[in-house]
């Protein structure tokens, strides 16, 4: 079976880049990305391709090449479903904020709405692909809805979780370590559906990297991969605190440990804490699922990864207060970086939000500079925490357009995102314009201690 028309529901950080790459690599397949958010769709269609709603290195060039040829962005969800032989569901699956499982379970209401819409609209057989990250066994619920509320057409459900990381999305999509496709491989029709999706990826991904499994293994592998990755960050962050007490240096420890080929060197960079839309949400989901099966030890084991991460963010902020003679009340503190990592404008669960909130609770005046995050987004993030009124957030937190505006007249500077440009700031100028003693807190191990101390900074870095 050859796929001719793909529809992707959800034009977000995953749906947009993933479909842009599929369209670029498969010129004979029509790809339509749909969303209920008309502003987002309008931005994807913006004449100036630099205005697409997601910043990812290399993405605008891919969109430029395919858009209007075989890549389309639309708000007409019904029409795209009707036309498609394969439908990706790539909507958000945030942590529930209400009811049973509040603060833990994944909220599947957007997924269910998609399933009901697909069932209502479809007039011929469809392959439905779970691209969103979902609790294990969600495909069962999807199938139930599709089979019971549909028009008697046949559905095959595949799980095809996405492993891209933000900031490197295009590269990750072009050269994935593996593509995971879970399906009903026991039956001929299930196998045929899996093969249809394999053929799409085989346009550019070597066959040996296309991994097929049963649906449940695929769903659970995604949660497992994120849990393992986050666990490595929490593990090295736990060690960073011990390093600070003992004179060891966390960078040296992670290098020494990472050179053991059984451990490997990636994801051992100590930081102010991991952020992003996935790690916390997916681990909480894993914890919730484990508890729901009565596996309390399994749940507690994984929950510790989150607890350690919360501790790391808090401890960094507390260090700033303590170092500034135990009070930051009325003091200007410059925060460099707001995104949860470099090369993205995404701020979801960014450590910067929590550090800022902590400092504002201590009555600091914060000034934020980030090269890609909008002012509006920064205030939205602060308001979302509900720690104080939005008027107060606007009065006490300022957002500026250059790093030097942020650092001028400040008591302390904290690096919260590892943007490359922060390495190359004129640190002498920063120092000269700050109040003295000039405190510099490196939450990303981005800067060299020796050169900063030579300028005169009081320098603190995570893990040394
Ligand atoms: P996102 O919030 O950026 O995008 C989701 C989009 O879906 C939104 O634009 C929203 O308007 C749209 N949407 C919601 N319900 C809809 C409906 N009924 N019809 C049409 N559109 C609808 O989310 P994201 O970051 O792209 O994540 C999507 C999924 O992919 C999540 O399950 C996430 O866990 C997973 N994932 C994300 C990443 C990542 O790096 N962001 C990586 C791997 C997997
Ligand atoms: C993650 C997974 O890597 C990706 O496979 C999955 O599809 C989505 O979730 P993402 O959240 O986009 O991707 O970025 P990632 O590079 O994993 O970083 C997550 C957070 O961990 C960031 O805040 C980053 O700064 C932090 N991190 C990462 C560290 O603090 N140290 C590290 O060594 C690596």
From TrEMBL:
Q: Which reaction does it catalyse?
A: UDP-alpha-D-glucose + 2 NAD(+) + H2O = UDP-alpha-D-glucuronate + 2 NADH + 3 H(+)
Positions binding NAD(+) in this chain are 10-15, 35, 40, 91-95, 132-133, 166, 278-281, 348
InterPro entries per the UniProt record, alphabetical: 6-PGluconate_DH-like_C_sf (IPR008927), NAD(P)-bd_dom_sf (IPR036291), UDP-Glc/GDP-Man (IPR017476), UDP-Glc/GDP-Man_DH_C (IPR014027), UDP-Glc/GDP-Man_DH_C_sf (IPR036220), UDP-Glc/GDP-Man_DH_dimer (IPR014026), UDP-Glc/GDP-Man_DH_N (IPR001732), UDPglc_DH_euk (IPR028356)
Q: Which GO terms describe its molecular function?
A: NAD binding; UDP-glucose 6-dehydrogenase activity
User: For this chain's UniProt record, which GO biological process terms are given?
Assistant: UDP-glucuronate biosynthetic process
Can you name the source organism?
Answer: Salegentibacter salinarum
Family the entry assigns: Belongs to the UDP-glucose/GDP-mannose dehydrogenase family.
Q: Does the keyword Oxidoreductase apply?
A: yes
Q: Please name the pathway.
A: Nucleotide-sugar biosynthesis; UDP-alpha-D-glucuronate biosynthesis; UDP-alpha-D-glucuronate from UDP-alpha-D-glucose: step 1/1
* Catalytic center residues: 278
Q: Enumerate the PANTHER family for this protein.
A: UDP-GLUCOSE 6-DEHYDROGENASE, UDP-GLUCOSE DEHYDROGENASE/UDP-MANNAC DEHYDROGENASE
The keyword Kinase is assigned to this record = no
* Protein name in UniProt: UDP-glucose 6-dehydrogenase
The EC designation for this entry is 1.1.1.22
Q: Which UniProt keywords apply?
A: NAD, Oxidoreductase
Q: Where is the signal peptide?
A: none
- Chain sites annotated for binding substrate: 162-166, 222-226, 262, 269-275, 340-341, 444
* Function in brief: Catalyzes the conversion of UDP-glucose into UDP-glucuronate, one of the precursors of teichuronic acid.
């Amino acid at each position: 079976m050859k796929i001719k028309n793909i529809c992707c529901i959800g034009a977000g950080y995953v749906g947009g880049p993933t479909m842009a790459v599929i369209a670029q690599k498969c010129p004979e397949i029509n790809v339509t990305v749909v969303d209920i958010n008309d502003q987002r769709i309008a931005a994807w269609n913006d004449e100036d391709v630099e205005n697409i709603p997601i910043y990812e290195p290399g993405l605008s060039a891919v969109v430029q090449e395919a858009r209007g040829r075989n890549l389309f962005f639309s708000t007409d969800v019904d029409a795209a479903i009707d036309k498609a032989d394969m439908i990706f569901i790539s909507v958000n699956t945030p942590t529930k904020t209400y009811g049973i499982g509040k603060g833990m379970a994944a909220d599947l209401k957007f997924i269910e709405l998609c399933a009901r819409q697909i069932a209502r609209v479809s007039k011929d057989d469809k392959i439905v692909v779970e691209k969103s990250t979902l609790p294990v066994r969600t495909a069962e619920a999807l199938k139930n809805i599709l089979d019971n509320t549909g028009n008697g057409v046949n559905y095959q459900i595949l799980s095809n979780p996405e492993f891209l990381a933000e900031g490197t999305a295009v590269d990750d999509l072009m050269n994935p370590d593996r593509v995971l496709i879970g399906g009903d491989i026991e039956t001929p029709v299930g196998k045929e559906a899996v093969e249809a999706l394999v053929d799409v990826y085989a346009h550019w991904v070597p066959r040996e990297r296309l991994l097929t499994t049963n649906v449940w293994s695929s769903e659970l592998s995604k949660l497992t991969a994120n849990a393992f990755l986050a666990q490595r960050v929490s593990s090295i962050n736990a060690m960073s605190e011990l390093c600070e007490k003992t004179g060891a240096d966390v960078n040296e420890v992670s290098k020494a440990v990472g050179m053991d080929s059984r451990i490997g060197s990636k994801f051992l960079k100590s930081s102010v804490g991991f952020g992003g839309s996935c790690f916390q949400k997916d681990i909480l989901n894993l914890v919730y699922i484990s508890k729901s099966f009565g596996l309390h030890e399994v749940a507690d084991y994984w929950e510790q990864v989150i607890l350690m991460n919360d501790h790391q963010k808090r401890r960094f902020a507390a260090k700033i207060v303590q170092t500034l003679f135990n009070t930051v009340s009325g003091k200007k503190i410059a925060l460099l970086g707001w995104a949860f990592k470099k090369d993205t404008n995404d701020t979801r669960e960014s450590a910067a939000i929590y550090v800022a909130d902590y400092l504002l609770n201590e009555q600091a005046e914060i000034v934020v500079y980030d090269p890609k995050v909008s002012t509006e987004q920064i205030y939205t993030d602060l308001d979302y925490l509900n720690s104080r009124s939005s008027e107060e957030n606007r009065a006490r937190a300022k957002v500026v357009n250059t790093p030097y505006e942020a650092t001028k007249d400040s008591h302390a500077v904290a690096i919260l995102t590892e943007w490359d440009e922060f390495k190359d700031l004129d640190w002498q100028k920063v120092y000269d314009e700050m109040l003295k003693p000039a405190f510099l807190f490196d939450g990303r191990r981005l800067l060299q201690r020796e050169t900063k101390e030579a300028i005169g900074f009081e320098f603190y870095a995570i893990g040394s």
